[in-house]
Amino acid sequence: MKVANEASLISIGDLSKRAGVAASTLRFYEDKQLIQSIRQQGQRRHYARDVLRRVAFIRAAQTAGLTLEDIQQTLAALPDQRTPTKRDWEKMSASWQPLIQQRIDALTALRDQLNSCIGCGCLSLKSCALYNPGDIAANKGSGARYLAGDRPPSAVCAVSGKKSPSK
């Protein structure tokens, strides 16, 4: 990162206010090498003004559902720790679309299955005998198998005549 002159630096408190994040968040981002401070007298943290845009980028990427690890890898690809440009954002956000779509699909499946068996093996719900007869989900592994993405078998309920949900 290019060292800015002292007049163009802002304190951690000012950056915190302008960015709308706690100072502890900024220190955390710095520990994760997402942003970089410049230490001056008294070891106080100061930041180049363009770090404000970098923090905004991090927050926007988090809002899009990216992990800090994903964001770190993306930012590490930029030369000299520079702040992402509009063109960088367009390129990066386009590459994130498949990941975001996967998350949308997983949330849609979760929404659609919330009122049915989750394949947890509890066998405590009356519907478990219909959606998970004999705890067949246990063969797929531990935990809530149907919420993890496994599909329940397609079965017809003997009582209602309706087919169990299988997506």
How would you describe what is shown here?
- A three-stranded antiparallel beta sheet has the order 1-3-2.
- With 167 residues, the chain is mainly alpha-helical.
- The chain folds into two domains: 6-97, Multidrug-efflux Transporter Regulator, Chain: A, Domain 2 (Orthogonal Bundle); 115-167, no CATH class.
- β2 (38-39) and β3 form a beta hairpin.
- The chain contains six helices and three strands, in the order βααββαααα.
- Helices cover 43% and strands 5% of the residues.
Strand count, sense and barrel status of the largest sheet are: 3 strands, antiparallel
Q: What's the shape? A: elongated
* CATH fold-level assignment of the largest domain: Multidrug-efflux Transporter Regulator, Chain: A, Domain 2
Number of strands: 3
CATH C-level class of the largest domain is Mainly Alpha
pLDDT < 50 runs, ≥5 residues: 156-161
Strand content bin: 5-15%
Count of domains: 2
CATH-level-2 architecture of the largest domain: Orthogonal Bundle
Quaternary structure type = single chain
What structural class do you assign from the helix and strand content? mainly alpha
The strand line-up of the biggest sheet is: 1-3-2
Tell me the number of helical segments per DSSP (H or I, 4 or more residues long). Answer: 6
> How would you state the average pLDDT, rounded?
81
Q: What would you report as the Rg, rounded to the nearest angstrom?
A: 24 Å
Order of helices and strands: EHHEEHHHH
The first-to-last residue Cα distance is 49 Å
Helix content: 40-55%
Task: Provide keyphrases for this structure.
single chain, 167 residues, mainly alpha, Multidrug-efflux Transporter Regulator, Chain: A, Domain 2, 2 domains, 3-stranded antiparallel β-sheet, 6 helices
